[in-house]
Amino acid sequence: MINQIKGLHHVTSLASSASKNNAFFTDALGLRRVKKTVNFDAPDVYHLYYGDEKGAPGTVMTYFPFPHAARGRRGAGEVGTTSFAVPEGSLKAWADRLTEKGVTDLGQDTRFGENRLTFTGPDGDAFALVEANDNRAPWTGNGVDEDMAIRGFHSADMRLRDEGASAELLRFMGYEEVDRQDNVIRFAVPDGNEANVIDIETLPGAGYAGQGAGSVHHIAFAVENRARQLEVREALLDTGYQVTPVIDRDYFWAIYFRTPGGVLFEIATNEPGFDVDEDTAHLGEALKLPSQHAHLRERLERHLEPIA
Predict the structure, then answer these.
(1) 96-100 long-range CB contacts below 8 Å, 24 or more apart?
(2) How far is C-alpha 35 from the chain's CA centre?
(3) Cα-flanking dihedrals φ and ψ of residue 69, to 5°?
(4) In contact, 201 and 158? CB cutoff 8 Å
(5) Is the pLDDT of residue 104 over 90?
(6) Averaged pLDDT, 250-262
(7) Which of 5, 58, 199, 268 could form a cystine bridge with 9, CB 3.0-4.6 A?
């Protein structure tokens, strides 16, 4: 078992419109856009990051908005629901706000004793707001009051046909089973960051998911630095996983591997952070390009969809 992983770092999904995606996260949910850059492998596509004031690990939702992308197919082998932590007693205010903003498919339920407000994003993305005792400072610069503002991730929900091998992997990564409810098993990292929960939802007869707009592309787990990341990589290789070399993503270093259930995992460093190339007061305002795509700036600024 390894002990370097502290919880979620970020969650990355696909979208069909940069402007609609940006409006949903900054206006409806009140998060801060902390980085506006491009997909390293497809620079004609944005990579947008949303989170708290500085984009702290465990708060950042990121998107690749491929224009007019077809919607994904829900099923097994994917992250089904991404959940954010909000203050206790705030779900009524959130339901009113999201209704006012035109968000659809609102529902309320309770999972493991915690009240949840479920809803969908512009591309059918599955989200939940979970009432939790969370001490992280929220971003309030987009008009959502502190008494209801999102604190960061609460959890991610993996939808699998068989939980066995993936549950074993989570235990190897330092997660412990903390509860079961119906067909859902909850895992958490003891003494992790506040985004330290993974739920496995077992759906034996479900068809397999098809990736598209509204699908989670991968989930990333946080480690303190590159040294800890290399330790995790070595341990995963020794266990038989096919792990990528370390990749410099400008704002963190990343390694990737595919889980037995089909979900793509990333291990990302907390360093150097999103303020490495922008002052904190102006995060997410300018288009930032990785060095290998800097020569494309003029063309990309003409091509990429304008966003506020």
Answers:
(1) 97/28, 97/144, 97/148, 98/28
(2) 14
(3) -60, 140
(4) yes
(5) no
(6) 97
(7) 268
Shortest CA distance to 181 belongs to which of 132, 116, 112, 128? 112
Q: What gap in Å lies between CA 145 and CA 30, rounded to an integer?
A: 9
Which residue type is seen at 80? G
Query: SS3 letters for the chain?
Result: CCCCCCCEEEEEEEECCHHHHHHHHHHHCCCEEEEEEEECCEEEEEEEEEECCCCCCCCEEEEEECCCCCECECCECEEEEEEEEECCCCHHHHHHHHHHCCCCCCEEEEECCEEEEEEECCCCCEEEEEECCCCCCCCCCCCCCCCCCCCEEEEEEEEECCCHHHHHHHHHCCCEEEEEECCEEEEECCCCCCCCEEEEEECCCCCECECCECCEEEEEEEECCHHHHHHHHHHHHHHCCCCCCCEECCCEEEEEEECCCCCEEEEEEEEECHHHCCCHHHCCCCECCCHHHHHHHHHHHHHCCCCC
What average pLDDT does the segment 176-198 reach?
96
The whole-angstrom separation of Cα 58 and Cα 154 is: 8
**Mean predicted confidence (pLDDT) in 285-291:** 97
Which architecture does CATH list for 8-303?
Roll (3.10)
| Region 60-78 average pLDDT | 97
* Cis omega (within 30 of 0) for bond into 272: yes
Closest by Cα among 5, 58, 59 to 176 = 5
To the nearest 10°, report the CA torsion of 90, 57, 180, 176: -150
Spell out the domain ranges in the chain. Answer: 8-303
Adjacent-strand bridge partners of 197: 155, 188
In angstroms, the CA 188 to CA 170 distance is 9
